[in-house]
Design brief:
The protein has one domain: YaeB-like fold, CATH 3.30.2310. The chain is globular and about 40 Å long. It contains two helices and five strands; from the N terminus they run βααββββ. A hairpin with a 3-residue loop joins strand 4 (68-77) and strand 5. It is an alpha+beta fold.
């Protein structure tokens, strides 16, 4: 089992919490459901949580929405603590 923590900077600002607060209730519930999967599952599917290639151990939580993808970045502190420190939304491009 893992523990997810949200990073706070020296002034107490928490970017991931601010990100979650900016989402609609339905969007936030979906993201939180993914975070619970990461905490509870022993093996997490790569479409939900994976190490970003070409980085020094930066991990990404990826939540696919209908027309956007919610992405939260972080790192491991030890083996079981995941510290999430940045989040953003990427609009999904439609094929035309």
């Amino acid at each position: 089992m893992r523990e997810i923590l949200f990073y706070r900077n020296e002034t107490g600002k928490c970017y991931v919490k601010d990100f979650l607060d900016s989402l609609s209730s339905k969007e936030a519930q979906k993201v939180v459901w993914h975070l619970k999967l990461i905490e509870e599952l022993v093996t997490i599917p790569g479409r939900y949580f994976k190490k970003l290639s070409g980085t020094d151990d930066i991990w990404e939580v990826r939540v696919a929405g209908r027309d956007k993808t919610y992405r939260i970045l972080g790192f491991f502190d030890g083996y079981i603590i995941v510290v999430l420190n940045h989040a953003f939304i990427k609009k999904t491009q439609k094929n035309t």
